[in-house]
Design a protein that fits this description.
By secondary structure, the protein is α+β, with helices and mostly antiparallel strands. 20% of the residues lie in helices and 43% in strands. Strand 9 and strand 10 form a beta hairpin. The longest helix has 27 residues.
Length: 230
Amino acid sequence: MKLKIQEIKNNSIANMTKKCFQMAILLLLSFGTIQAQDKKAKDLLDQVTTKIKSYNNIVIDFKYTLNNAKENINQDSKGNVTMKGNQYLLNFMGVTKIFDGQKTYTIVPEDEEVTISKVNEKDDNAITPSKMLTFFNSGYKFNMDIVQNVKGRKIQYIKLTPTSAKDQRKEILLGIDVQTKHIYNLIETGKNGTKTTLTVNSFKTNQPLSKNQFTFVASKYPKYYINKLD
């Protein structure tokens, strides 16, 4: 059971990282090459892109929910992520991940361990902002979906559907606040019935960041085991 929980935790952290980047990249991405474009959806995404491109950094507090009724899994977690250029700092489920543009540092206080690994951009499983730049460039069609009123906020959803039959995701719903042109949430539904939702509780930009915001300082973890994979 402990191994099952740890597996869910590891998968959640990986999925959470991907969703944070997906959300950020959707803000920054040019959608000119995406297949089967819906003009209204593209116009809305272009408005979001235009506004967000001027931001120097993005700081997000979020709630992450994973549900699978068949497996009786219902998991809620909170976290935060700071992104600037091709660097990020993610705190989620008791784990801190730092990417300084070249290496990823995964800090696990529970195990008193730090894992350091280089990122291979050619690896399909690599999770970096630059890697995610191509996420929605091809292999998806998108169109306007439902509109919801969430606590007085008008949220317009755009549905992205994978064009490959091999893709294990059924669809992705991206919720955009019509007034602020910021992302409200991202809902991913898998073919196996698993639904993961990233909801933004706080979205801040151009925050004063430390010069060493994305730098791993080994002296802060004197008793930790340093596991260098490369």
